[in-house]
Amino acid sequence: MKYIGILFCASLTLFACSGEGASAEGASEEKVNLSDTKTTTGGPEIVFEEESFDFGTAKGKDTIVHQFKFKNTGDQPLHIANVSASCGCTIPNKPDGPIAPGETSVITARIVAPSAKTKKDVRITVDSDAKSGAKVLRIYGQIAE
Description:
The protein is mainly β.
């Protein structure tokens, strides 16, 4: 019975991280020019230069690193409480301390590609005190053998 439980958990982990069935089509590749963003009032606000990134094709066991640049366009300091990924193979890092109004910073995502050939589609949730609420970033691509 113990082995069945372990097998079940392993299957869930592989399924959750594989990204199979997730489509990269329709993803917006437009970048926001952060220097052109206008200040909003009534609290902190987070605006990302891009909310999705296509890393193309990577080899199995490669490490993929991408920085999502953002700006606090609000009139109060922005506090990022938590950054989490939809897959255990991805380690997101948030900035330390508050981001002052008008300042920019980055959220870094590091993916260790699986050794199997697969599509990869990871969601990174950014929880903060921004007026717009939580943001979901996306990093995706193809893993070759």
